[in-house]
Design a protein that fits this description.
With about 250 residues, the protein is of the alpha/beta class. The protein contains six helices and ten strands; from the N terminus they run H-E-H-E-E-H-E-E-E-E-E-H-E-H-E-H. A hairpin with a 4-residue loop joins strand 4 (about 125-130) and strand 5 (about 135-140).
Length: about 250
C-alpha cells in the first residue's frame, strides 16, 4: 500500500512539473513573439501611436471599409500593449519618427498620404481619371491601372525617417476595399514580413482580386517596389524646338 501511494505521489509530482515547464515554455514563446511584434511595429509596451484617418471620397465622413481597417489596426495596437490616438488627416501637422504612425487612404482622401508620397516615396505618382472613373499608379517606369471591383492595387509600406526610429506604415489604395485588404494582409503576415525585412523599410504592391465577389480577402503580392518607389522619377528632358526654315524659292 505504501509503495502504491508513493507511485501516485511521484506521478502527480511529475505531472505538475511537466505542466509547469510547459506553461513556462509557452509563456516564454509568447513573450518572445510579442517582443518581435512590438519591435517590427515600433510599439513598445504602453507607447502611443497615431492613426491618421482619411475621409470618404466626395464627402467628409469615413468609408465603412476604412472603418473596418481602423478596427483591425486598433486590435493589433492593443495586442502590442500600446495606445492609439486618432487624428484627422488634415490635422496631423507633425513630423515622423518619434512615434509609430499608421496612415490610411490615397492622396485624394488623405493630405498626410500626399505629403508622405512627396517626401518619402518620390518614385510614386497617383493620378485620377474621371472617364472612366479610376485611379492609376505610376511607379518608376511601370503603370498600374485600376479595374474597379475586378483588379485593384494598393501600396503597403513601412518607412523610416526623421529623428526617431519609429516607422510610418502607409496604406495607399485605389479604393477603400483595397485599404482594408492591405490592412488585413499586414495583420496576418506581419511575422513573415518581419523575418524578411527585419526593421528595414519596404514598399509592397498588393493586388486585390475580384473584390465584388471576395471582398478584401483575396490579395496577391504583385511586387516589391521599394527601389523604384524610393528613387525619384527622372524628369523628362525638354524637347528642343525645331528651327524654322526659310521657304525656298
Amino acid at each position: 500500500m505504501d509503495e502504491n501511494l508513493r507511485d501516485i505521489v511521484l506521478g502527480v509530482a511529475a505531472a505538475g512539473v511537466s505542466a509547469s515547464l510547459g506553461w513556462l515554455a509557452r509563456t516564454a514563446l509568447w513573450r518572445r513573439r510579442l517582443r518581435r511584434k512590438q519591435a517590427f511595429f515600433g510599439l513598445p509596451g504602453n507607447s502611443e501611436c497615431l492613426l491618421v484617418v482619411n475621409r470618404e471620397a466626395d464627402g467628409d465622413g469615413v468609408h465603412r471599409n476604412d472603418v473596418f481597417a481602423l478596427l483591425e489596426l486598433s486590435a493589433l495596437i492593443r495586442d502590442c500593449d500600446a495606445h492609439a490616438r486618432i487624428v484627422r488627416h488634415d490635422q496631423a501637422q507633425q513630423g515622423f519618427g518619434e512615434r509609430t504612425e499608421f496612415c490610411l487612404g490615397g492622396p485624394y482622401s488623405n493630405q498626410r498620404t500626399q505629403a508622405h508620397l512627396r517626401t518619402l516615396l518620390p518614385g510614386v505618382r497617383v493620378d485620377f481619371e474621371a472617364e472612366p472613373r479610376r485611379v492609376v499608379f505610376h511607379i518608376g517606369p511601370d503603370e498600374y491601372r485600376q479595374e474597379p471591383k475586378t483588379s485593384e492595387y494598393v501600396l503597403l509600406a513601412r518607412l523610416t525617417a526623421g529623428e526617431g526610429e519609429r516607422p510610418v506604415f502607409l496604406i495607399c489604395g485605389q479604393s477603400s476595399i483595397t485599404n482594408q485588404a492591405a490592412t488585413r494582409y499586414l495583420v496576418r503576415h506581419h511575422e513573415k514580413l518581419a523575418r524578411t525585412y527585419k526593421r528595414e523599410p519596404f514598399v509592397l504592391l498588393l493586388k486585390v482580386v475580384n473584390s465584388e465577389a471576395y471582398g478584401p480577402d483575396v490579395v496577391e503580392l504583385s511586387a516589391d517596389i521599394t527601389r523604384n518607389a524610393t528613387t525619384p522619377a527622372p524628369i523628362p528632358a525638354p524637347t528642343e524646338p525645331v528651327a524654322a526654315q526659310s521657304p525656298t524659292t
